[in-house]
Structure formats: C-alpha cells, structure tokens
Amino acid sequence: MSKINTKIKENFDTYKQLLSEKKVLNVKQISFDKQKSHKNWIENNSQLNGNHETKFLLNTQQSKLDRKDYKFRLVATDFCEQALARFDADGATHHNKDNQIPLSKRKIEAPHFHCFDKNGKEIAYKTTFLEIKDNCTELQKNISIGLNHFCNEFNIQPNQEKQTEIVSNNSIFPFDIHDGVNFI
Amino acid sequence: MSLSQHDLFSVIKSDFCNLFSYKQRGDTIEIITSICTVTNCYVSVFISQKNNEYIVSDGAWIFGRQYENELFEDIDKEIVDKVTNQYIEHYEIKKLVHNHHQTYFYKKTDNIHLVSALVFEVAHFVAAIINAQSLSYLEVKEETESRQFKKEVNDFFHANYSSTIVSFGSFIVDDSIPSTIKFNAIIRTNTMLHLVMYISGTNLSYFTNATCKAITNFEIVSKKRGNANYLTKTVIINNKCDGYQPEKTAEYLSHLTETTNSKPILYHGFRDDILRRIPQT
User: Fold this and answer.
1) For chain B: N or C, fewer Cβ within 10 A?
2) Strand B231-237 relative to strand B193-199: parallel, antiparallel, unpaired?
3) Window B:180-219, CB contacts with A under 8 Å
4) B169 to chain A: which residues are within 8 Å by CB?
5) In the 8-state DSSP scheme, what is residue B245?
C-alpha cells in the first residue's frame, strides 16, 4: 500500500537539496550486468559523485521483454531506503491521490517522473517535454534520450571526459504483449 | 452556484468516463480503466482479436509487478494465494504461463457484445489481486521492527562494503537455485560469495519462523552447491527483539549453526564480527 515517507516529510528541505544539488555520473558505460529477482528485468547500479557526504546511486532497470519499458531511480540509502525520485518510460498509469486535486487531474500516464511532496506523499508528474507525444515515443525508443532527460531533471551531469553510453539491445517496436501467446 | 441533480450526475459521469483511455501496443490495445489500486495505479487491461475470438488479459502485468505490487513476507504469500484462488473462481479467470516467466490472467469470448463485460471483470479482478498483494497481514509492530532491523543491518553493510559488491533482498543468479530463495544480503567478490540472512521477531513464533526460513534457504544452497569453499553462510540475529529467547530456541539455533558451519552473529554488541567473517575487499 502506498505509504507516507516520514523521513522525507520531516526533512523536506534536505530532500529538495539532494534532488537539486550537482551530481556527476562518473561512468563511461551503463550495461545491464545484474539480473533482478524478477527474471524479466535487468539492472545496473552506477555511483554518482556529489558535493554532499551522501552517497548517490543511479539505478537503471529495463524489461527484457519490452526494451522501451525502462526506469531510472535516484537512490541515496544513507538518507532513506526508498528511491528519492524515479522515471518510468512505460507501464502503469499513476493516480495522484490528493483530496485537493479534482479527479480529472489525478491521472498521469507513463512516461512520467515520481517524486515526493512536502507531506512525504509519492506523486507522479510530467515535464513539459513529456507532454508532447512524439517526444515520449522517441524517448521510449531510445533509452539514451530518457537518461538525458532524467539527468537534466535532477542535476546529474556527465563527467567531462566521459560521455556515458547505455549498452542496450534495440527495441522491438511496437511491442505486443499478446504476440505469440497461445490463449487456449 | 448549485447544480441540479441531473447536472451533478452529468459532471460525475463525465469525470468518471474521461478517466478511460487507450494505448495502441501493436495489434493489442491497452485500455486504461478508471479502476484504481491501493498502490495508486489505474488498472489496464489488454485486448486482442485472434481467430474470431477476443482475448482480454492483464497483459502479464500482475506478475510483471507493473503496479508496484510486492510481497514481503512468506506469511503474506500464503494469504494472498488463498485470496487469489477465490477471485479466480469468482470472476472465472483463466491463467497461463508463457515462456516460463510471463503469467497471464485472461478471459475470452467470440461475442463482441461481451467484450465490455470481460473488460469490467478482468479489471476488477486485477484490482482485487493487486490490493490483496499490497496490504500487510503482519502485526504492525512486527512489520515495523523487522523493517527497522533490516535497515539497520543494510546500513552497516553499506557503510563497510562497496555498493558494487553488495545486493539486498536478492537471489543467487544461478538456474540451479530457484529465485524464490532470497537472501537478505549477498556480497560478491571476484573469488567469494557470501550469503547472509537476518533473524528477528517480535515474539517467539515470528523469531522461530525466521530461523526456520534461514535454515531452509541454507540447506537448499548446501544441497545444490555442496560445501563449496568459495561460499560462506552467515546469520545475523537481532538479539534485542522480544522473540530472541535463546533457551527456548536452542534446538533451532544449534541446527542453524550446523547448517551454516558457523555461529550466528548477535548484531547488538558483536556486529564487528561481520567484518571478521566477511572481508571488506
């Protein structure tokens, strides 16, 4: 069940600071070297260098079935166990459950970002870039565009000498979840 | 300004109906419904037409954990399995496993006039299952304490070991050991694999269950891998929890010691033993 993140609620200024402070992605390559416990997902953890003492990780996950279904998560476990923010390129549509938001404004389709509000409640949102359908399609086809967008949103900068490259198989586009399944 | 009853109804109907939308996914269409889960996700169902039949499925999203649905404890799984079977029966849902890892729940019909009814039923089924999986069936105190202990020990590993070699709540990537066998922490170096289980419990029963789980996990690894010298088995006990009653669990702890070839580490007061047992590089 979706729960309030009390650590973020009680330290909201620190949380905002962690999101906005400069972090440097210090790897040349992101390759999916780890199998997640769910066999259809693979992942990578890359360290981010910040000014702060807090250690940051960039966690990247990708579905092996549908390559356009990928996620980026900004993690700082010294601060809290849950990811500080994430980006979902595809997947379920989020409901921003908030007594002050009319029903018609609560629905946020993927691709979208997730972060926490000042009450420690997880919310989804779209950037202006993601409001444009063609941008969403391009970003789903090309994970590097997604990475750039995520990095821009949370002040993650590339190391000047390294242009981080994501090693990922090409998408089957469009992916059809019923394709090849024998529904007897 | 007040609305007439009819206008009020119209606004509500319009707001509800406008929640529905769709996405094209190849020859399959995703219907995003107005039904929402306790994980704050709208339920999607997937429809395709094949051999004059309409298939309405969950798109393998329940097992694909697309709804942020996770099961945390064994006790939850038992309850959720019982609940799931009753919902399958109630909604007359079919289930199939494709390519070993994709589990689909679905209904089908050759009558186009029944497709909406199937969407209605499959969507309610998905919400029911996700909600059942996402609620906690443990006592609040047990859940909180168990989570706090996990966090405390995870933090200790984070502070003392490189994040590139530690993973939490994961399984050994190896087809010989099922992915249902998970360890609280795994530390991989070039030459060694260190498997770690944590034991805690707010009463004797929870503590004993956690001990049995650790014993079983390590016994399965021993059975599959033998006593390989590249592998160590470590147990870390929360010796401040109410369930830690060594005199009453002596038999279990002694069996655990035999299974792991090492004494469990009592976290409070002796946590530095972890560093001696598992080298930092």
Assistant:
1) N
2) parallel
3) 182
4) 37
5) -
pLDDT for B237: 96
Closest C-alpha to B263, from B251, B254, B252: B254
Question: Residue B163: which of A79, A48, A168, A154 has the closest Cα?
Answer: A48
Q: Which residues, in sequence order, are bridge partners of residue B266?
A: B237
Q: What is the pLDDT of residues B222-242, one digit of tens each?
A: 888 777 788 899 999 999 999
Question: What is the average per-residue pLDDT within B178-188?
Answer: 85
What would the two tokens of residue A146 be?
Answer: 């997604």
**B134 in the Ramachandran plot: left (φ > 0), alpha (ψ -120 to 50) or beta?**
alpha
Asked if B61's CB is within 8 angstroms of A181's CB, the reply is no
Q: Would strands A112-116 and A122-125 be described as parallel, antiparallel, or unpaired?
A: antiparallel
Which letter, b or e, does each residue of B140-157 get, where b requires 16 or more Cβ atoms within 10 Å of its Cβ? eebbebbeebbebbbebb
CA distance linking residue B36 with residue A103, whole number of Å: 12
Supply angle C-alpha B118, B124, B125, rounded to 5. Answer: 85
Task: Assess B25–A contact: CB distance below 8 Å, yes or no.
Answer: yes
Distance set, CA A184 to CA B110, B111, B152 (Å): 13, 16, 49
Q: Is residue A105 less than 8 Å (CB to CB) from chain B?
A: no
Amino acid identity, position A115: C
Q: What is the mean pLDDT of residues B251-269?
A: 93
DSSP B168: E
**Do B108 and B54 contact (CB within 8 A), yes or no?**
yes
pLDDT at B107 over 80: yes
How much is the ipTM here? 0.92
How far apart CA B125 and CA B88 sit, in angstroms, is 8
